[in-house]
Amino acid sequence: MKFSSEPITVSTALLLQMSLYLDSLNVDVDAFLRSLGVDPATVKSPDEYISVDTYLRIQDSAAEYVNDPYFGLHMGEFAEAGSWSILGYVMMNCKTLGEAFEKSGKYSRIIGNMIEGKARVKFKKVQMALFTPPHAPQMSRHCYESTLSSSVRMMRLLSGIQINPLEVTLIYPKPESTAEYERIFCCPVKFGQKENSMTLDWSIGNLPVRMANPSLLERFEKYAQDFLAQMERDDEHTRTVTKIILSRLDDDGLSIQKVAKEMAVSVRTLQNRLESEGVVFSDLLRDIREKLAKKYLHENYTVEQITYLLGFSEPSVFRKAFKKWAGVTPREYREQSLSAIPRI
């Protein structure tokens, strides 16, 4: 199994999009963030990143705060070039929509690696399926729905045409009312499916982007390339260690000594490198195991299977560790996760 080696982070630029929606509801965004213990100043720079856990806490709390079960859909309606940081400006200067979304796939890491898209071409149709890294925490429907809604909004903004998908599929149960889905997507929406996806007519890739500027595209794309290169330099040691941890999780004796040996450096050197990136090895190992454990429980893996996959010596040791992480037993967590699936 292939694992992503990167810590999961989200660009604070996406919080701008969320703020625009909250502003439209006359919400004091700064006061709301402070109520969550988040300093508004720390999330206002579009070139900063926050952990996926912090982003999910803000997004889910905002949905609850405004009592909007369709929060993700509505947040997507406020997408604009600035909402996607430098990626948005790259896309708006491409020649066609096809080129814009090719660039989106190439530079999507700029706005985060919480959700990844995989394109499939079949019978003159393009299906974009959404996936999360295996070590990502469980996400609410708002994440997927905002991604799909934002993508449709960007297609319409870039082309100046009311482009509609051919079909949207969601893994969640069908809500009592589907009116908002039909209004936003203007196409059939199927619920309780195997994946979250959007299918488009192949021909839309040839539609021109109305504000295309080749010289600006070259400039913005160079900036995007430099930005990604800097990101890789900024957390290269964390990414390397994460990759090793994910490939060695079934080792119940996994330690910083073993990882340092594989990297051919001393333990002290590795500790210093991680510290320079704000990371402690034991915390990183715990976080990866915790997130994977929750993901596996949500996907109905047995406790025995998870014990083996995460490198615990026996199920009782895993159960004890999990209760320390989550405050509940694995069985209780699984039951709570199932009961928490929104049925709107």
Computed Rg: 21 Å
Distance separating the two termini: 35 Å
Fraction of residues in helices?
40-55%
Side-by-side strand order of the widest sheet: 3-4-7-5-6
Mean of residue pLDDT values: 87
- Name the helix and strand elements from N-terminus to C-terminus, one letter apiece: EHHEHHHHEEHEHEEHHHHHHHH
How many domains? 2
CATH class of the largest domain, named Alpha Beta
Q: How would you describe what is shown here?
A:
By secondary structure, the protein is of the alpha+beta class. The protein has two domains: 9-231, H-NOX domain (Alpha-Beta Complex), CATH 3.90.1520; 235-339, Orthogonal Bundle (Arc Repressor Mutant, subunit A), CATH 1.10.10.60. Helix content is 53%, strand content 9%. It has 16 helices and seven strands. Strands 3-4-7-5-6 form a five-stranded mixed β-sheet. It has a two-stranded antiparallel sheet with strand order 1-2. Helix 8 (179-185) links the parallel strand 5 and strand 6. Helix 5 (85-92) packs antiparallel against helix 6, helix 10 packs across helix 13 and helix 14 packs across helix 15 (315-326). The relative contact order is 0.11.
